[in-house]
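# step 3/5: fold
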Amino acid sequence: MIENFLRPPRGAGEWLADVLRVVGAASVLVAFLWWEPTDGGVVAAAVPAMLAPRFAGVRAGFDIAYGAVVLIAAWSNVLDLYRRLPSWDLVVHFAATGLIAAVLFVLLCRAEVIASARARRVRLVMIPLLGLAVSALWEIVEWAGKTFVTDTIFVTYQDTIGDIAFGGLGSIAVAMLVTAVPIERTTALPKEKEKAWPRN
C-alpha cells in the first residue's frame, strides 16, 4: 500500500485525482478563515478520507468520483446544505457511504484481511456490510458533535435511521458496480495473488 501511495501519478486522470486532494487540503484553511473553527474541523476530517484511494491503488476514474463526493459531503455541512435542501442529506449518504465502503474493501484486501477478494459474492456481501458500519460510525460522530461540540448539528432519530438506510442502499449499488467493473489498478495487484483469487 505504501508503494501505491508513493507512486507518481500517470495520466490526466490520476493528476486530477491528486489535484482534488490538494484542493481538499487547501479547503481546510479556507474553512477555518472564512467560517467557524468547527467547519474547518469538518473539512479537515475529509482530508485523510481523500488520501485513502492513494493507498488502495484504485483506478483514476473511481478516485476522482470518490474525491469529489467526499469534498461535496464536507462542504455541504459547511454551507448548511443539509438543512437548506430537502433530502440532500440522503443523497450524500447514498453516494458517499458506498464509495467509502468500496475503498475500505480494497484496503482490507491489500492488507490481506479479506481473502478471495475477486470473488463476486465476497464483494456483494462485504461492501454493503462495510457501508453499514461506516454509516453507523458516521451517525455516532454526528451525535458526538451535537452533544459535545455544537448543537447546530442536526441529529434526530428519523434522520439517523434514514441516513443509515440510504448509506446501506448506496453500498449495495456500489458493490454491484464494482463487481461488474473492478476499481483496482490491475498493475498494482501482486501477480501470484491475482492468480490465486477466484473471479466468481
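# step 4/5: annotate
Residues 187-200 have pLDDT under 50 and may be disordered.
# step 5/5: archive (pending)
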